[in-house]
Amino acid sequence: MLIELAAWFKSSPREIKRVLKKLQMIAEYDDLPRLSTIKRVGGTGRIIQISGGNGRLYCFLDRNGMTTVICVNTFWIGGGDKLKRQSAEIEEAERRMLLWQSARIVSGIVGARIARAG
Prior knowledge:
Layout: H1 2-11, H2 13-29, E1 38-41, E2 47-52, E3 55-63, E4 67-76, H3 82-105, H4 107-117
Antiparallel strand pairs: 1-2, 2-3, 3-4
Helix pairs in contact: 1-2
């Protein structure tokens, strides 16, 4: 995810700055601002798409005591069947969200193992 964002920043710094500003707004207000460039997508309705020019950032809100925005995927418009590729990226974002949530259930066990290993 970080590599994708770094590549996006290198190729289109203005676009990624706009996207990051919107991401900051979501985190600060604990909800989605009413902007045409931010919307819920996917079958679960929990994935948030933030548009910035030709790029899309997919994330979701994790509310476990506090709200955290978890970025899970990016999409760049260009080449091939846009709708098919974008749908695949949204599905991948939903899969990653489910993985994150299932990992949270055992986070105490994982944290204990990391503490003992360190």
